[in-house]
Amino acid sequence: MQCGGFRVTYRSDERIFDTVVPIVGLVLLLGVLGVVPRFATTYWLDVLNRIGIATIGALGLNILVGYTGQISIGQAAFLAVGAYSTAILEAKMGLPFYLAIPLAALITAAVGLVFGVPSLRLRGLYLAIATLAAYFITTYVIIHWESMTNGVLGFNMPPAMVFGLPLDSDARIFYLIYALVIPAILFTKNLFRTRVGRAFIAIRDRDVAASVMGVSLFHYKLLAFVISSFYAGVAGGLMAHHSRIVFPDSFTLLVSIDYLAMIIIGGLGSIVGSIFGAVFMTLLPEILKLSATSLTGLYPQAFGFIASTRDVVFGLAVIFFLMYEPQGLARIWQSLKSYWKLWPYAY
Questions:
Q1: Which of 5, 95, 177, 219 is 20 to 30 A distant from 347 in Cα terms?
Q2: How would you classify the pairing of strands 155-156 and 160-162?
Q3: For 227-272, how does the pLDDT look when each residue is reduced to its tens digit (9 = 90+)?
């Protein structure tokens, strides 16, 4: 019985996909995504759009935390910078969305570069506190720089326009979101086949040894913050267009905790885990909501009770995965794939 990966040339080792099966699966997925808006209800389109946005944000955070080992609980700050930058560039400066979102992502990356500087001297809990400070600083600036951000009033976003067609519905914005989700996943997949990605992993595993081998901690730690913040900027810009309103209460500290939960439950250092975590953390509140609605007829207090247990359920889920499956849903998925791959040989 043969098992494992057998690559005998450098060319085969550099392939993104080992077999044609993932390629066929990707083509089928793109086909499904192309027709989903024709059949899905507005409610489920809204859920799918939020999953897509969360996937981009979780990928960025996983690059920083899961792959590079730099703790961050300031993801909400970078999402807010991306959303507000997009709103300002479009609503106040009149730029089209296809320029505003990339520029907003670059602005967010610059902010991430500034707040990434403490990572050169801090690690672990101390770095987490530094990123928490970044969140409070960003929130303060957003609320008090009223001439630019409109303070607590926020912005009403104009719909994105494509060839004169406004993306003013969940079905239309769906294509914009997933047109960015797919490249974000592929870029992340390729990133960790390059020297940069391997340097990130080396820093995560043992930064002192990586430095001895010639990996510049100064360069790569800051680069990890820049790339992660860029992803957050894109996700923030999409959040602004999806909700069509931007205000400070959309980016609370709980948003940062949610994103940390996504990569913990999905799997640290895993692209598939980022997707699974985004799906899990987005669907779980909806499942609780549907359960509460179905039980309200029998138990009138059920809706309020189940709604109030959301954070408890999230906390228990995080504790469960940390205790029993630290590698998250990605590990469970890998185990299932390995089982079905070896199943014919088990008998």
A1: 5
A2: unpaired
A3: 999 999 999 999 999 988 888 888 988 899 899 999 999 989 889 9
d(CA 18, CA 265): 26
- Segment 151-174, tens digit of pLDDT: 888 888 888 888 778 888 888 899
Cα–Cα distance list, 164 to 99, 167, 168, 220 (Å)? 16, 10, 12, 42
Burial of 301 (0-12, 13-18, 19+ CB in 10 A): exposed
pLDDT digits (tens, 9 = 90+) for 278-320: 999 998 888 877 766 665 555 555 555 566 676 777 778 888 8
Rounded Cα distance between 347 and 262, Å, is: 38
> Rounded CA gap, 3 and 342, in Å?
8
- Phi first, then psi: what are they for 240, rounded to 5°? -60, -45
Backbone φ and ψ for 147, nearest 5 degrees, come out as -65, -25
Helix (H) or strand (E) holding 167: strand 165-167
SS3 86: helix
Residue found under tokens 């192309």: 34
Please provide the size of the chain in residues.
347
80: confidence class by pLDDT, cuts 50, 70, 90: very high
Nearest to 241 by CA among 179, 187, 161, 183: 161
Fill in the DSSP letter of residue 91. Answer: I
Cα separation, 64 vs 82, whole angstroms: 17
Q: Which two tokens stand for residue 9?
A: 């040339």
Rounded Cα distance between 198 and 214, Å, is 12
Helices 75-87 & 97-116 angle (0-180, nearest 10): 150
Q: How far apart are CA 76 and CA 313, in angstroms?
A: 21
